[in-house]
C-alpha cells in the first residue's frame, strides 16, 4: 500500500534538493536517481539544472517571480506492514514518474529509509520538454498519480487502498492515516525536538541536529518557527506549546532556569570562537559582560543571551579587569527586561471541527466564536471584580500584578522542564511531570487572558474618553 501526496517548491529548491538527497537517509545516495543528463549525484547540480531549464523557457531571463513553482514535490509512502525493500520502492517511484510524464519531464527520486516506513521523495520539473512550456497541474493530477501508484503496487503484490464511498472534507487521506497511527506532524516535530535537545550544547547546535532529522528552525522576532522538511508544514512555537518556545528550549539545553538579556550587534565589544563580550548599557562603555556563545540566539541584528538565573554575573572594565559581581536579575538595572508577549501565551480555545458538511462546519465555528465572545465578557467582568473592585487596584496595577504572577509561573514551568530532562525517570514520573507542565501552561494562558481583558477594557475606555472630548470640543466651537 502506498500513499501519494504532492506539494510545490517555490523559493527553496536548493535546500529541498539537499534535504531529499541527504546521504544519511538514502544509503550514502545509493537510493538517488534522476533522468537529468550529465549531472552525477550532486543535489546542487540538480537544483541548478531545474532553474536553468526554466530560465531558458522564460526568454533567457533569470526567474524573478517568487510565486512560480520551481519543482513539484511528490511523496510516495509505503506502509510499514508491506514486505518491500528500499530498492523495489525506488523502482516503483521511477516507474511512477515514467508513466505520469511519458519521459517529457525531468525528475529526481530519493528513497528515504530513516523512518519506520519507506518513502520516495520526488522532485518533478515543471517544464515540459516537448512543448518547452510550464506544466499546468489540473485538479485531477493527484488522482492520476494515486491511480498509477495503486496499479504499480497491485502488480508488485502490495495492498491497495480502497477509495472512500463518500466525499470527504478537511483532512486528506494521508493525513487521516497519519493521525490514526499517532504520527501527526506537530507531535512528530515535538518528538524530534525532545530527542535532540538533550544531546546538544547550544541553540545553533540544536538547529543543525534538527535539520539532520528533517526539521528546519527559523528565528523570526519573538517566535521560533519549525518546518517539517517532508511535508513543508510550518508551526510557530506557540502552536507546539509554551514548552517549545525559545526560552524553554534554552532551558532544556542547559537544564537550568534562565533569564534573558537582549542587545544589538553594535554593543559587542569583542568576540572569539568561544565567547562574546558586550558593553553594558548606561556605563558609557566602561563595563562589559562576557557570555559563552552557546548561550546566544541570533535574530538578525538582535542577539539574546540566556543566562543562569541562580548564578552571579561578573562585570569587567575595558581591560577585562574585575569590577563587580551581581545576580543575573540585577542585569535588568542596565538591560531592558523582556516584555511579556501576552498573545503568544494564550492558548487557542477553539476546538477543531471535523464534519462532512462544509456549511455545518462554518456554522459550528461561528457558534464557537460567539461562545468565545461571551467567555471574554465573563472573563473581563470576573477580572474587574477581583482586582479593581475587591482588590482596590487601578487597571495598570492589576496588569502589573498579574504580569508578575505570570513571571512566577514561568519560573515554575522552567523548573518543571528542567526536572523532566533528568535521566532515569520512571514512566510514572514522566507522566506526572508532563501533566504538571500542561497544567502550568494552562495557568499561564488563563492569566494572560486576564491581562488581555484588562488591556482591552482600558483601550475601550480611552477610545470612549477621546470620542467624548472630541464631541465636547465641537459643541464649544459652536
Automatic annotation (TrEMBL):
Basic and acidic residues bias: start-end ranges: 455-466
Pfam families: Relaxase
Superkingdom of this protein's organism: Bacteria
Protein name from the UniProt record: Relaxase
Organism from which the protein derives: Bifidobacterium aquikefiri
Region (Disordered): 454-478
MobA/VirD2-like nuclease domain sequence ranges: 19-158
Amino acid at each position: 500500500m502506498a500513499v501519494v501526496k504532492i506539494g510545490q517548491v517555490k523559493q527553496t529548491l536548493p535546500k529541498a534538493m539537499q534535504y531529499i538527497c541527504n546521504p544519511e537517509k538514502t544509503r550514502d545516495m545509493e537510493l538517488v536517481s534522476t533522468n537529468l543528463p550529465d549531472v552525477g549525484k550532486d543535489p546542487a547540480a540538480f537544483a541548478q539544472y531545474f532553474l536553468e531549464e526554466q530560465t531558458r523557457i522564460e526568454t533567457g531571463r533569470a526567474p524573478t517571480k517568487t510565486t512560480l513553482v520551481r519543482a513539484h514535490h511528490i511523496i510516495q509512502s509505503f506502509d510499514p506492514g508491506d514486505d518491500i525493500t528500499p530498492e523495489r520502492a525506488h523502482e516503483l517511484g521511477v516507474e511512477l514518474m515514467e508513466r505520469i510524464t511519458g519521459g517529457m519531464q525531468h525528475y529526481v527520486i530519493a528513497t528515504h529509509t530513516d523512518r519506520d516506513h519507506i518513502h520516495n521523495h520526488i522532485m518533478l520539473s515543471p517544464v515540459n520538454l516537448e512543448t518547452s512550456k510550464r506544466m499546468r497541474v489540473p485538479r485531477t493530477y493527484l488522482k492520476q498519480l494515486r491511480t498509477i501508484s495503486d496499479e504499480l503496487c497491485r502488480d508488485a503484490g502490495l495492498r491497495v487502498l480502497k477509495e472512500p464511498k463518500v466525499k470527504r472534507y478537511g483532512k486528506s487521506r494521508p493525513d487521516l492515516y497519519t493521525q490514526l497511527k499517532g504520527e501527526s506532524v506537530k507531535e512528530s516535530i515535538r518528538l524530534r525536538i525532545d530527542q535532540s535537545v538533550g544531546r546538544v550544547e547550544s541553540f545553533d547546535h540544536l538547529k543543525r541536529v534538527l535539520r539532520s532529522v528533517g526539521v528546519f528552525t527559523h528565528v523570526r522576532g519573538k517566535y521560533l518557527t519549525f518546518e517539517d522538511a517532508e511535508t513543508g508544514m510550518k508551526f510557530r512555537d506557540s502552536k507546539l506549546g509554551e514548552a517549545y518556545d525559545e526560552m524553554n528550549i534554552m532551558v532544556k539545553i542547559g537544564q537550568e532556569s534562565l533569564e534573558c538579556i537582549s542587545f544589538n550587534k553594535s554593543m559587542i565589544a569583542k568576540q572569539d570562537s568561544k565567547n562574546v563580550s558586550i558593553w553594558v548599557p548606561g556605563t558609557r562603555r566602561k563595563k562589559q559582560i562576557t557570555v559563552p556563545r552557546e548561550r546566544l540566539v541570533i535574530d538578525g541584528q538582535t542577539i539574546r543571551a540566556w543566562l543562569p538565573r541562580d548564578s552571579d554575573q561578573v562585570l569587567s572594565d575595558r581591560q577585562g579587569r574585575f569590577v563587580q559581581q551581581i545576580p543575573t536579575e540585577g542585569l535588568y538595572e542596565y538591560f531592558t527586561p523582556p516584555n511579556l508577549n501576552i498573545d503568544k501565551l494564550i492558548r487557542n480555545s477553539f476546538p477543531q471541527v471535523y464534519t462532512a458538511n462544509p456549511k455545518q462546519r462554518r456554522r459550528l465555528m461561528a457558534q464557537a466564536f460567539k461562545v468565545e465572545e461571551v467567555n471574554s465578557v465573563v472573563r473581563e467582568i470576573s477580572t474587574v471584580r477581583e482586582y479593581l473592585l475587591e482588590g482596590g487596584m487601578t487597571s495598570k496595577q492589576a496588569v502589573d500584578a498579574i504580569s508578575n504572577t505570570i513571571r512566577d509561573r514561568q519560573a515554575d514551568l522552567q523548573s518543571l522542564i528542567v526536572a523532566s530532562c533528568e535521566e532515569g525517570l520512571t514512566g510514572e514520573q514522566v507522566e506526572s511531570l508532563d501533566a504538571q507542565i500542561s497544567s502550568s501552561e494552562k495557568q499561564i494562558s488563563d492569566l494572560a487572558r486576564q491581562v488581555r481583558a484588562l488591556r482591552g477594557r482600558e483601550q475601550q475606555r480611552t477610545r470612549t474618553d477621546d470620542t467624548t472630548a472630541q464631541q465636547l470640543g465641537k459643541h464649544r466651537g459652536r
